[in-house]
Amino acid sequence: MESRRGARRESSVVFHRVAGVGANGHGVPGGDLTPGKAYCSDPMAKTREIKKRIKAVGNIRRITKTMQMIATSKFARSQQAAMASKPYSAALFSLVGELSSGTGDVSHPLVNGTQAEGARDLTLIITSDRGLCGPYNGSVLRASMALLRGNPGLRDGEIELVGKKGAGFLKFNRIPVSRQHSQFGDKVTYEKVEALAQEYIDRFSAGQIKSVRVVFMKYLSAARQMPETLQLLPFKPPARQVDSPEKGYDPVYEFSPDAGELLNHLLPAAVKATLFQSFNDAVVSEHVARMVAMKSATDNAGKAGKRYTRIYNRARQAQITTELTEIISGAAALA
Question: How far, in Å, CA of 282 to CA of 225, rounded?
């Protein structure tokens, strides 16, 4: 009987391998699920522990699946808004290019600036308010740090931040943030961006700042986004595209009023459209990154649930086998 008790204790230790979701973790508390890792408890407690883990992983999978569906819906809406604004921006830039070529050397405060003494550079970094969006914020912040390290004058200038996720990173790297914008969120409106762009235009024209750069995540496609640094001010008019010789003509435009007066209205509009497009690209990139991250988390939770189920079945089978062995051994001892 003593040898059978020892065998029972050994069997309980060998087959008791319940823990959390593993070394990489899926957000479920517990130890390691690696086979061979043993801990001391009775078989009934072991199976109950596994069932709790299965339920917890199932709850996590439902949450991540819901977040994936929400991100997919927001991505579709924001992508439509971003794509709808691009034709306007392209036509506006084309017109500015034609006007600048018609006037020769463009002389405008938004192009040449006002070199006042004490003017500093301004850098606007666009991050997200919420996490769980994969490498989105990390990529933007790494690009920002590379820009600041490569240009010491930018680090000594004004640094403005959009979104809450970049605040902790910049604070850890001891980079002072002169202003944090919290009015945008994930539903960017043209009115809010226009007010910010107009503020930059007024300060740049008055000589308070000598340049404005924007660091954001540029949306290229659903499978590709990349961090980009855009010089917003001084504004660089796009070069005029000369038609190919095969077309046989080069259009000549007549402007009324004159090109210089038109530029006074179109250049501020181009600056505002550029900043608005940057915000739209950042929002779309955030949603697509969150959609991909939540899909990956949902798939991982599903795999963890299957792994827990296999471990539970093995533990239950070991428990039943142990109980049958005890019954048979008891009956044999009484015989």
Answer: 9
Distances (CA, A) of 88 to 41, 85, 93, 193, 289: 68, 6, 9, 16, 26
The answer to whether 275 and 188 have CB atoms below 8 angstroms apart is no
Q: Which two tokens stand for residue 90?
A: 């392209």
Q: What's the pLDDT tens digit per position in 179-194?
A: 999 888 878 899 999 9
Q: How many angstroms separate the Cα of 91 from the Cα of each of 81, 118, 282, 291?
A: 17, 36, 22, 32
Residue 18 vs residue 138, higher pLDDT:
138
How many domains does the chain divide into? 2
Q: Which residues fall within 8 angstroms of residue 164, CB to CB, at 6 or more apart? A: 127, 128, 129, 130, 182
pLDDT 10s digits, 134-159:
999 999 999 999 999 998 889 889 99
**Residue 310 domain boundaries:** 2-65+294-334
What is the rounded distance in angstroms from the CA atom of residue 18 to the CA atom of residue 43?
10
Q: How far is CA 193 from the centre of its chain?
A: 20
The domain that contains 235 carries what CATH number? 3.40.1380.10
Same-domain status, 137 and 202: yes
